[in-house]
Amino acid sequence: MSVDGDRDGRDLEAELESAGAGTVGIPVDAICVGCGRIRVKRSSLEELDQKLHVDPDTLEASDLTSFKHVCHPCKGATWWNPVSVLTGLLESEGGE
Fold this sequence. Notes:
By secondary structure, this protein is an alpha+beta fold. The chain contains two helices and four strands; from the N terminus they run αββββα.
């Protein structure tokens, strides 16, 4: 389910393009369990405990598991909990 767009003044496309989002995987909005920061991150289907052939458009955040990713304010790799799958950002890139 795509839940893209302007969230609390955040530019989700700019967050996805930043180095902090990562370069591989589907875009998800996720919350850092360390500091509570919400950011767009990329995570592979494997990291999200999904089969590789799953269509990201069919995924809901509740289908996904937590994943490890860098959090700059926490100064290291921390666990992130998916809040939503940002398939609209994936579609705007022409697919993954």
